Amino acid sequence: MTCHPPGGAAVAAHPVDEKLPALKMATSGLQHVAAMYAGVVAPPLIVGAAIGLSATELTFLTGACLFTAGLATFLQTLGFWKIGARLPFVNGVTFAGVAPMTAVVAATEDKSDALPIIFGAVIVAGLLGFVAAPFFSKAIRFFPPVVTGSVITLIGVSLLPVAFGWAQGPDPQAEDYGSTTYLTLAGLTLLIVLLLRRFTRGFVKQIAVLIGLVVGTLVAIPFGVTDFGPVADADVVGFPTPFHFGAPQFQLAAILSLCVVMVVSMTESTADMLALGEIVERPADEKTIAAGLRADTLGSALSPLFNGFMCSAFAQNIGLVAMTRIRSRYVVATGGGFLVLMGLCPMAASLIAVVPRPVLGGAGIVLFGSVAASGIQTLVRAGLDKDNNVLIVAVSLAVGIIPITAPEFYHSFPETAKIVLDSGISTGCVTAVVLNLLFNHLGKGREAQDVTHPMEAGEEIAAVR
């Protein structure tokens, strides 16, 4: 795609703004949907089960979340006015809200009021976040490569346990969880993706993940792992009727809890935008981040209208962009279109649900590992020959990995605090920003010492010896 400025030569459009052929657009968009589907449907399934919704109502709630994820993705990728980062971002239900939403359910005596209370809190948190977006975006100055590289690496590392969990099976409580059958299917899917990436070219190479998911699903059929029941039971047409579960209710405790989640979500979205900007070679500046946060928060505020939850950028799709190098935001917008259709057609949504979790896990290892690799690439440019930067990376990664390696580390803290502390991306991001201010901004007269290895002594120490 090219444009012709008056009196000038044709100028190629940036890959982010490139419109691909229809088939390539559709298949690549479907890859994004497959990569994030499990993440979108998990929160409504968990919250709906806590409330005690019937199977029909649970299906409705899940479809509503798919529908609103598609709308939020449109806002982010296509945008209008000063809303939307206009980057290849998939938006969907943030998992950070699951714990406080289930807490709201537990504290609500009449369970039929739980969803209206949650929806009211999400609306308020979304509107407040929308107002705060331009102020929040000014934090961009505190995200040099040493910070963004650490955060991008943490995003990938934090997502890998999700892939490992998928690889072991759909139900952690089941006796066959982590069986050799599940792990073999995950390994086979991973192998298919790797072989396609290594020995094919062009379009086939770019949709290697989608092919791996399809082949892995077909291979899983003889093992009885692929379940086509959801397709047979699903309706062909369904629409998320506005306020299906009742008009929103506004309770202060729930609002405060979801506002904390909104801050966490905005922090992670900022990190995600910085990561994606690096990957697509269109760095996210203050203006882009403000527009992206407006899309996140507006999508969240509108989501309860159609019975959806708080929306945020999906980090797992960054890995897909990094691996395929398909950077067009219109591809992701096409994925958003699929999400809307799936919300309107439960049968279509059920087709993605057929893909077994172990198959998703095998593909996820490649996708999420690609995000971590992108972070390492950014760190290479961060000046790790400086002792200060080595310390920033070392401590921020260590703090960010705590929730992964020691999930009960913050068990004695209040529930509100754990919303932030249990997010390794958020804690690692805050740690990196604070340490960068401490070491590279405060007292700048003292230069950082060069080191060739983190464990080697600086020149001053060596001189004393």
TrEMBL record:
Using the UniProt record, give the first listed, main subcellular location.
membrane
**UniProt entry keywords in alphabetical sequence:** Cell membrane, Membrane, Transmembrane, Transmembrane helix, Transport
Q: How does it sit in the membrane?
A: Multi-pass membrane protein
Q: Which InterPro entries match?
A: NCS2, UacT-like, Xan_ur_permease
Q: Which Pfam families does this one have?
A: Xan_ur_permease (PF00860)
The UniProt transmembrane annotation reads 34-54, 60-81, 88-108, 114-136, 143-167, 179-196, 208-225, 245-264, 330-353, 359-376, 388-407, 419-439
Q: Where in the cell is it found?
A: Cell membrane
**Assigned protein family:** Belongs to the nucleobase:cation symporter-2 (NCS2) (TC 2.A.40) family.
Q: Name the NCBIfam families for this protein.
A: ncs2, NCS2_1, pbuX
Q: Which PANTHER family match?
A: PURINE PERMEASE C1399.01C-RELATED (PTHR42810), URIC ACID TRANSPORTER UACT (PTHR42810:SF4)
Name-wise, this protein is: Purine permease
Instruction: List the top taxonomic levels of the source.
Output: Bacteria, Bacillati, Actinomycetota, Actinomycetes, Kitasatosporales
